């Protein structure tokens, strides 16, 4: 079983969108041996943002409400995928990559912005997710 945890700041936008978009992609591909989660470095139990829910639903992923979850101790058997290189550096050593490692640039935080920015963020995340899953399949 492969475990992937997406990490951002508050776990209300990017990381939870990446989690749900990855689950959707895995379902489409019929892949069942990958467990997906998300956490926030500074999560405070806030709900997923309204624009994230709307965009996820539009894309066919789950838009169900959920409280953000704070990142705890890192698990050596989990691959952590951060949204920025700064978050990757903050987490330190281990199985940690950033979206920038996959797509060439950080995924900026859409928090507080309009739905169009969330849609753009989701499309960027999808690109990184497809690259990540391709790389994981190559290793198997």
Write the layout of secondary structure elements.
Elements: E1 2-8, H1 14-29, E2 34-40, H2 50-58, E3 78-82, H3 85-91, E4 96-98, H4 99-103, H5 115-139
Parallel strand pairs: 1-2, 1-3, 3-4
Structure description:
The chain is of the alpha/beta class and 140 residues long. The chain has a single domain, classed as Rossmann fold (3-Layer(aba) Sandwich). The protein has five helices and four strands; from the N terminus they run E-H-E-H-E-H-E-H-H. It has a four-stranded parallel beta sheet. Strand 1, helix 1 (14-29) and strand 2 form a beta-alpha-beta unit. The longest helix has 25 residues, at 115-139. The protein is globular and about 40 Å long. The relative contact order is 0.22.
Q: Quick recap of the structure?
A:
Helix content is 44%, strand content 16%. The protein is of the alpha/beta class and 140 residues long. It has a single domain (2-139), classed as 3-Layer(aba) Sandwich (Rossmann fold).
For the terminal residues, how far apart are their CA atoms? 11 Å
Number of helices: 5
Q: Could you name the CATH homologous superfamily?
A: Response regulator
User: Main sheet?
Assistant: 4 strands, parallel
Radius of gyration: 14 Å
CATH class membership: Alpha Beta
Shape descriptor reads: globular
Estimated structural class: alpha/beta
> Could you give the order of strands across the largest sheet?
2-1-3-4
Mean pLDDT: 97
Q: Using DSSP, what is the number of strands?
A: 4
| Beta-strand residue fraction | 15-25%
Task: Pick out the low-confidence regions.
Answer: none
CATH A-level architecture: 3-Layer(aba) Sandwich
Q: Helical percent range?
A: 40-55%
Total tally of structural domains: 1
CATH level-3 fold name: Rossmann fold
């Amino acid at each position: 079983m492969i475990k992937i945890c997406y990490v951002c700041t508050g776990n209300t936008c990017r990381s939870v969108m990446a989690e749900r978009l990855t689950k959707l992609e895995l379902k489409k591909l019929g892949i069942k041996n990958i467990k997906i989660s998300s956490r926030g470095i500074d999560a405070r139990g806030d709900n997923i943002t309204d624009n994230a829910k709307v965009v996820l639903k539009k894309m066919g992923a789950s838009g169900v409400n959920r409280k953000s979850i704070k990142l705890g101790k890192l698990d050596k058997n989990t691959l952590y995928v951060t949204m920025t290189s700064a978050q990757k550096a903050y987490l330190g050593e281990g199985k940690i990559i950033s979206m920038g490692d996959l797509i060439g640039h950080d995924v900026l935080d859409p928090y507080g912005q309009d739905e169009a920015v969330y849609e753009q963020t989701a499309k960027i995340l999808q690109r990184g997710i497809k690259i990540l899953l391709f790389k994981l399949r190559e290793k198997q």
